Amino acid sequence: MNYDYREKKIVAVLNNKIETGIALNVLGHLAISIGNYAKDHMGRPILHDASGVTHLGIARYPLIITKANENKIRLAIKAARDNTNILFADYPRQMLETGHDDELADSLLLVKEEDIQYLGAIFFGNSEDINLITGKFSLYK
Fold this sequence. Notes:
Helix content: 25-40%
Low-confidence stretches: none
Structural class: alpha+beta
Distance between the termini: 32 Å
């Protein structure tokens, strides 16, 4: 497998006002979403250890977890919408407040984008493009 792992990256940004348990839930849902839509992001599909046991592969590119305030997350999402080379997923607060996917869809139809409170987002693309919109975010600790 020949590629430069620095060519692309995945950056998740979590709202710095949410507690750790919610942040992990947000991150998990965002990772599943971006993993479903991203192309060419996986390394080897199956890995083998010395015992012959198989392990599912992981992303071939770095995954960096950051945090920022809600306004910076909103600006990053807007920048990603304006760049067709970036794949992204966002996590509105409504995702926490609904249970079923139909409830979520109905709930989002009732709120304008500028009124959505974003709890996080995840971005995948060329490192240069991703750095432009997430490069100043603090690492999540």
